[in-house]
Design brief:
alpha/beta, Rossmann fold, 4 strands, 42% helix, 16% strand, Cytidylate_Kinase-2, Acyl-CoA synthetase member 2 mitochondrial, P-loop_NTPase
């Protein structure tokens, strides 16, 4: 018998290259399914207050979210930091695969016009 509790609900990891549209897709999916969404880049790279959390603090934040919610959507790649925190608990992993010209356009326009 497993010592880990049985999980229920949808636990979705949205991954893809920079500029693929992960955050937009995850937000829309979260609204449609009424599931909380966590944008991993905001934890690991930048916060709304201006600075990034330490890698350990960001990892702990994700771990708290994953362990305290039956359903969640995580958007971002961060495999190295989260392989044992969220990926092994995900019910679905969605790979956003956009054409290279579209991805480049998104990255360039986001960088130039932000």
């Amino acid at each position: 018998m497993s010592s880990e509790p049985q999980l229920s609900g949808r636990r979705i990891q949205v991954i893809g290259v920079t500029g693929a549209g992960k955050s937009t897709f995850a937000r829309r999916l979260g609204q449609e399914l009424s599931i909380p969404v966590c944008e991993l880049d905001s934890l690991f790279h930048k916060s709304r207050a201006g600075g990034a959390l330490s890698e350990d603090d960001a990892r702990r934040s994700v771990q708290v979210l994953v362990e305290s919610n039956d359903e969640w959507i995580l958007d971002g790649n961060h495999w190295v930091q989260l392989k044992d925190v969220s990926y092994n608990k995900a019910t679905d992993i969605i790979w956003i695969d956009t054409p290279l010209p579209l991805t480049l356009w998104r990255v360039i326009t986001r960088t130039v016009w932000v």
